[in-house]
Amino acid sequence: MGRVNWNWLGVAPFFLFAFLFLIGPVLYLVGGAFQNTEGAFTFDNIIALGSPNIVASFSLSIRLSLLSAAMGAVAGLLLAQAVILGGLPAWVRGAFTTFSGVASNFAGVPLAFAFIATLGRLGLVTVLLRDLFGINLYASGFNLFSFFGLSLVYLYFQLPLMFLIIAPALDGLKKEWREAAEILGATRRQYWQLIGLPVLAPTILGCFLLLFANAFGTLATVYALMGSGFDVVPIVLFQQIRGNVLYNPNLGYALALGMVVIMGVSNTLYLILRSRAERWQK
Q: Which Pfam families match (predicted)?
């Protein structure tokens, strides 16, 4: 008779947590998405995902997530390159890493209020630019309460998240590669074009997908800044499950299932690209 392996006992809380807060809710969503209000099996909720208003909400969420992910990926990569490979003192990286760890988790109502107080119509920066330099942001076309303005708010937590993820990949660029390229007469631009960026490409694309998934599921920041009239998928889902007029929980489950599929595909591609990047940098 074999001995009982008690080593699994240490990871039992993790599996219990994963089942209660990840696997269980997803199974519940799948069941609810294929039921009507009486509990009978139906495809009506899945078919309803093709209605114009829901398709428009998915389109809006995808476009917003793509833009914020692209902005965060480019800005975060340039920032990380400057901090890590730019020859700055070691304490600068420590300061940016600490700030990024906090800022990447700063979202919701506090973030929306911070931007309103800073770049709102009577925000601190808006008033200072108007009174000291004669620059009227809102008269020039800028509007915090718009698609681009919301993307700018997302950049606050997307950029530091990109910095945290891409920093180890930049550390993985071997000095020997740069030295060999310089010995062979390559310029800085040629090094990045032919060696640096191709090696980093899987990591950068993976980070972009992770930022996309991070933005796609954001609710509190959008709701606090734009209100319920900005129909991204999380707000439409909230209206279906908790609303008084659009109350249809089963359609809400179908919307949530659609979000799970999109975010699952994004995260799966991210893991594939990350594993490929790790092989390149071994």
A: BPD_transp_1 (PF00528)
Q: Cβ–Cβ contacts within 10 Å for residue 274, how many?
A: 19
What is the end-to-end Cα distance of the chain in Å, rounded?
43
What 3-state DSSP class applies to 35? strand
CATH of 14-109+143-280, one of 1.20.1730.10, 1.10.3720.10, 3.10.580.10, 3.40.50.2000: 1.10.3720.10
107 beta partners: none
**Residue whose structure tokens are 């000291």:** 132
**pLDDT for 65-99, tens place per residue?**
999 999 999 999 999 999 998 888 889 999 999 99
Give me the residue label for tokens 């992910």.
69
Confidence of residue 222 (pLDDT cuts 50, 70, 90): very high
Contact predicate 108/114, CB 8 Å = no
Give the burial class of 16: count Cβ atoms within 10 A of its Cβ; 0-12 exposed, 13-18 middle, 19 or more buried. Answer: exposed
pLDDT given for residue 83 in this prediction: 93
pTM recorded for the entire structure: 0.88
| CA angle (44 as vertex; 39, 45 as ends), nearest 5 | 80
* CA angle (108 as vertex; 122, 162 as ends), nearest 5: 100
What is residue 179's predicted lDDT score, i.e. its pLDDT?
87
- What are the residue ranges spanned by the domains of the chain? 14-109+143-280
* Contact status, residue 228 vs residue 210, Cβ threshold 8 Å: no
Gap between the Cα atoms of 163 and 78, Å rounded = 9
Task: Output DSSP code: residue 11.
Answer: G
Instruction: For residues 255 and 258, give the distance between their C-alpha atoms in angstroms, rounded to a whole number.
Output: 5
